[in-house]
Amino acid sequence: MSHLFPDFDDTDSSVRRSLKGKHILMTGTTGFLGKAVLEKLIRAVPEIGGIYLLVRGNARHPDARERFYSEIASASVFELLRSEDQEGFEAFLEEKVHCIKGELTRPRFGLPDAEYERLSSRIDLVINSAASVNFREELDKALTINTLCLDNVAHFARNSGGIPVVQVSTCYVNGMNSGEIHEDIIKPAGADIPRSEDGYYQTEALVRLLHDKITDVRSRYSGKLLEKKLVELGIREANHYGWSDTYTFTKWLGEQRLMEALADQSLTIVRPSIIESALKEPMPGWIEGVKVADAIILAYAREKVTLFPGNRESVIDVIPVDLVANSILLASAEAITAEQARRIYQCCSGSMNPVTLGEFIDHLMDEARENYAAYDKLFCRQPTKPFMAVNRTLFDAAVTGIRVPLSLASKAMKMAGQNRDLKVLRNLDTTRALATIFGFYTAPDYVFHNEQLMALAERMGDSDRELFSVDPRRIGWETYLRKTHLGGLNRYAMGERRVYSLRTRRERRAAAAA
To answer: What positions does the domain Fatty acyl-CoA reductase C-terminal occupy (predicted)?
Structure first.
């Protein structure tokens, strides 16, 4: 399959030289970031030896390869590859993409011993981007997916002869720490957790304690109430140790777990900030689903939210998905060729190309007012009300002050036989729900740094700085937010999903001969 960078010879790119002929195990490729990494790997490193995807079967698609074609290969992220060389793309998938039906949360991935050993003998590198990104996940589920399953990743890496692991984490393992946040092990902002001489935090006792609390909750509740209590337990424990939500707490625990298990092996942790639509690749604005900031944008576009807690002067750290995918592949190339070490890279914009929350809001609102008709799937009509970010105390007072009389009015109407909800009351509840989940991220008092990631890009050389750009200074925020991101939301996130049926070359040839 031809690649899309004809101006660069293979020998110019350290990444392509390092990954040529290698066999990579990837997880999380049904997710937004995982698809972006897979697409860039196929497009920019066609000389890869093989890509092995750990994919769960599900009720609709019990076979891993069937699920791959239905949910991954059919995604809009591959439009460029299909348009450039559909024949070559399908051939690449058939020859070099191998789907393994397994479960990351089970020992040995739930594979039969012989299959597990065969897989172990083939793989040169693991890229793990699987995660539960639900900020308010039930604690038992978040622990299983974001923390405990990393024991299985570490076991596989050791069983494969000590191969490198690239773990995708998040800058927000920072939790409630404030100030300048560098690419290092994060200290909890809350209750003390014992720290090892090697720098990582020892979490075994804490995980046992959390399991005991989960068991206690399970013994006292059931059904929907049990789910609610496990969510509340996760938030409470996260807050106690210094995190705003269960997602970031369990991702931090996962980092520590891997650092301990792979203390004598190569481990690279890549921490993105808030991942949003692509800056350039594979298409400007490409996105899948509604991300952190987009939930608020969409609620505003639907006239449900006009007030939100936040600090207009704070730096909100957003990073396009293609820069994150490039960071992962730079880190992967280094992990395969460099000496064994523990490395941490943050893929972020806040220290080198900051945009404040106020600027972020103003760019989007200006575009919405001036060109709303261009985003027909987002905006039903021109927005008339401003979107205001206010401090949390004022927000809580305003929402409570407005909601109480409206709630009383709604009850009075129902008692009078007028059984209809007040739209304003529903909108307030939407605002409050979004603020509960995302309010922490819109009033940041920290700045993420990426000096080590930029140094890695510098070491890789000129070609790779173009092929695999990670430089946030390339983002022009006004153009990106007003045109690229809103356009991408309208086209990809809000558009109808295209059903793309892939057939093997054998099937296509048979059909042509019929």
So the answer is: 404-495
